[in-house]
Write a structure and sequence with these properties.
Blueprint lengths: L7 E6 L17 E2 L2 E2 H10 L4 E8 L1 H4 L9 E6 L4 H11 L8 E4 L9 H9 L8 E7 L18 E10 H9 L9 H7 L5 E4 L10 H10 L6 E13 L9 E3 L2 E3 L13 H13 L5 H4 L13 H13 L3 E10 L9 H12 L6 E6 L5 H4 L3 E13 L3
Helix pairs in contact: 5-6, 8-10
Length: 391
């Protein structure tokens, strides 16, 4: 163990909503290779011998129920409405800390921190007078202000984390803050008139912010789980009504012009019902009736997107990823092909997957059977998912 590096306590603010990703859950809890992004971030400090403890700030509804997987998590606190307030809460949870002890603050959705960059930032405190330091990177792109000005990028830096402070300094900065809208802690410290040492990162350390960043993370973060590919099959039938209903015909979340609607307890979307069953089958979670029984009045006339979202969430909870959806709608009327692109787009949007992973097509039964007599629509689907291999 390199005795030249100081020890520290780390605060991980993980209570944010992560709305900019456009996903259903906060980005720090999105899974990559079967593990939450937050777990990858925590790994860095769990495996660092200079880390003496981790304080984790979580959403209020999780703070009391979260079961930590990392042994160095010493405190779990309820986060506040802003990042700044979450860190204030975390600072208050630290015990037996001296003013000169180092507090490291690191973004929950910044899982790429390299050991060398961490050490480089800690090493800055060996210099006389340094009480605060932050990892950063040069700005390489040409910048344009809305005023039309182009700032000199040679004088600009993109601040990252970790940001490291003496405990007494960062505590004072939070206590004396005049606004609760600061997006990083170095701003609070500079507001006190203190300088913050800039440490240039040598490795990739960007924050996961948007949906495309998660795609990038899948390529960068290591796979620590062995996966297997599983398939599920779905089949469903709904009859047409007598033509007097004012309800529209909904197929795969799209309103399709037709003189008759389908009958059913919910919105009778036979396409989404079939895909839902296929996904549930792939992860051995029964069928749609198990999760949304037709005897429950709650689901009367419900948008079937709710059912498909639930199946998608269950796949994610199993550490899985949807690889492909293949749906066939079976009917004489209406014509499906003109509406297939919109259906594909809607299904992909509900499942939050690329449209190239969704196939929707149609066939007839050559006027045989109930579909041939235009009495209803049948559908069958196959869903392919990747899930962690069972032991």
């Amino acid at each position: 163990m390199d005795q030249e590096l100081p020890t520290y306590h780390v605060i991980i603010p993980a209570a944010g909503s992560g709305t900019r990703t456009g996903l259903n859950a906060p980005k720090q809890f999105q899974t990559i290779h079967g593990r939450a992004i937050l777990d990858y971030t925590l790994d860095v400090f769990e495996n660092d011998p200079y880390c003496e403890g981790i304080v984790l700030a979580l959403p209020k509804d999780m703070a009391s129920t979260f079961v930590p997987k990392h042994s160095k998590i010493t405190n779990i606190v309820a986060g506040g409405a802003t990042r700044q307030s979450s860190i204030t809460n975390a600072l208050a949870a630290l015990n037996n800390i001296k003013d000169t002890d180092l507090i490291l603050i690191h973004d929950a959705a910044r899982p790429y921190l390299h050991r060398d960059d961490l050490a480089k930032t800690l090493r800055a405190f060996k210099q006389d007078g340094v009480r605060a330091a932050t990892l950063c990177k040069h700005v390489n792109d040409t910048l344009l202000h809305t005023s039309g000005d182009r700032p000199d990028r040679s004088e600009l830096y993109a601040l990252q984390t970790p940001q490291i402070f003496e405990y007494g300094l960062i505590t004072k900065a939070h206590q004396q803050a005049t606004t609760n809208k600061h997006t990083d802690d170095s701003a609070l410290v500079t507001a006190l008139g203190e300088s913050v040492k800039l440490v240039i990162a040598d490795h990739y350390n960007d924050k996961i912010t948007f949906a495309q960043d998660i795609t990038m993370a899948e390529k960068i973060l290591p796979e620590t789980v062995t996966y297997e590919t599983r398939t599920g099959q779905g089949f469903d039938v709904h009859a047409f009504d007598d033509g007097t209903s004012e309800k529209p015909l909904i197929l795969c979340g799209v309103t399709v012009p037709h003189d008759r609607a389908l009958t059913g307890h919910s919105d009778a979307d036979v396409g989404l019902h079939t895909i839902t069953d296929a996904l549930l089958g792939a992860i051995a979670q029964g069928d749609i009736g198990r999760h949304f029984p037709p005897s429950d009045a709650t689901f009367k006339d419900m948008d079937s997107a709710v059912f498909l979202e639930k199946a998608s969430d269950l796949v994610k909870e199993a550490g899985g990823k949807i690889i492909n959806i293949d749906l066939t709608l079976i009917c004489e009327a209406p014509k499906i092909t003109p509406h297939a692109p919109a259906m594909i787009a809607r299904v992909a949007d509900i499942l939050q997957i690329d449209q190239r992973r969704v196939s929707i097509k149609a066939t007839t039964t050559e006027k045989l059977g109930f579909t041939g007599r235009k009495e209803g629509i049948a559908a069958q689907a196959v869903a392919t998912v990747k899930v962690p291999e069972y032991e």
